[in-house]
Amino acid sequence: MVAQDPYAVTDMSELPESAFSPREYRRGDLVTGEIVRIDDEGMVISAGLKTEGIVPPQEMRTLTDERREQMVQGARVMVIHLNNRGPGGMAVFSYDQAQEKQVWEDLIDLHQKIRNYPPKLCSTTKAVWS
């Protein structure tokens, strides 16, 4: 059986052949990667075999101090791919846009759940307009 999540693999033989070649990302792709480093210059992300990228400081403005403390080497983080030509040939990612996308997806899910439940009339009120 072939494992789908490369982070869950305990035996390299479980990985498909495609896992051994660098991944090509397109603008707007949602990427889950591991933090290699985070400092004042940004966050370096390992996004798969031979693929590293950077989240510049201007793309992680929504990162709170509390959340930043949780961002340690090896932690997984979701980012959006912006560009393939960053500093040192690294890809450029955005933490802020990934958070925005997640909020929208959560709102859409919530809206769908609400639509599936018809409103229940609990009481009636009488409005008087003057």
Automatic annotation (TrEMBL):
Gene3D superfamilies: Nucleic acid-binding proteins (2.40.50.140). Residues 28-96 form the S1 motif domain. One of its GO terms (molecular function) is nucleic acid binding. Transmembrane segments: none annotated. It comes from Geodia barretti (Barrett's horny sponge). This is S1 motif domain-containing protein.
